[in-house]
Amino acid sequence: MLSDIIKKMNTSLNDNVHYTFNINNTSYFMNDLIGKKIMIKWRGKVLCHCGKVMQKFYRSGFCYNCFWSSPLASQSIFKPELCTAHLNIEERDLEWEKKFQLAPHYVYLANSSGIKVGITRSTQGVIRWMDQGASQAIILAEVPNRRFSGDIEVSIKRYVSDKTNWRKMLSGQPVTIDLVKIKSELSQHVPDDFKKYILSDNTVTEIKYPVLEYPNKVKSLKLEKNDCIEGVLKGIKGQYLLLDNNQVFNVRSHEGFIADFSFEETISQGSLF
């Protein structure tokens, strides 16, 4: 059994999404564990990105000081339309904000639990879609900074959601959507000043996930309520582990939790015993 902080799974796009879990600087291929029993046991402590160990996070995965002072927790992280680095205006740390905000971003349409609009850095497109459990995705526009992507997203989310219904996403594969047609329709609602950023490339990325069985009625597991999560792994979708008895565990929302890990048998690139 090994101990480490929980980190989101790394992904790569293949016939099915390939998932790896990093534990103590060793990557474990999670797809090999499907059909096997796994256990994650929380040690009752969490680790903030600043290095502070505590019993629980203050808010959104941060300690009190980081939530109110770190640029990682600023308003523009959650609402990109509030970004100001392109105007040379500081929120919390202008140097950091320039590096983060003044980079090419995509505005995309994805089919996860139905059509949604979202934004991501252009280097993170496919990764973002896999993390959200999307089965299809298309790029609507590519812009030079985060603020412009937020402005376009605001105009589009008047017509489609900007959220994933995670319960619906975990209930099975969504109905295939004609994303090229929807992109054409929604492009009409992009503000005139941003229409020049709409991409003519209509490539649709198709994504499949390693799932043996979807839950009939989703039961979400949280380490704060039950410090030991265990069961037979039935599949992985987005950043969720799908376990037997309709249980699901959101790895991403537990980042920073200090835990013990135990898997039924040796898996690729390392043994957990």
Give a quick summary of the entry.
By secondary structure, this protein is an alpha+beta fold.
Q: What's the story with the biggest beta sheet?
A: 8 strands, mixed
What is the H-and-E element order?
Answer: EEEEEEHHHEEHEHHHEEEEEE
Going by helix content, strand content and strand pairing, the class is: alpha+beta
Distance between the termini: 5 Å
Low-confidence stretches: 266-273
| Rg measurement, Å | 20 Å
Rounded mean pLDDT is 94
Description:
The chain is of the alpha+beta class. The protein has a domain at 103-206. Helix content is 18%, strand content 30%. The chain contains seven helices and 15 strands. The chain has helices at residues 64-69, 75-78, 94-101, 125-131, 146-156, 166-169, 179-187, and strands spanning 2-5, 10-12, 18-23, 26-29, 37-47, 53-54, 105-111, 115-121, 136-143, 204-206, 219-221, 228-237, 240-243, 247-250, 257-263. The strands form three sheets. Strands 1, 5, 6, 11, 12, 13, 14 and 15 form an eight-stranded mixed beta sheet that branches. Strands 8-7-9-10 form a four-stranded antiparallel beta sheet. A hairpin with a 2-residue loop joins strand 12 and strand 13 (240-243). The termini are close together. Mean pLDDT is 94; it is low at 266-273.
Tags for this entry?
eight-stranded mixed sheet, disordered C terminus, 273 residues, alpha+beta, 18% helix, 7 helices, 15 strands
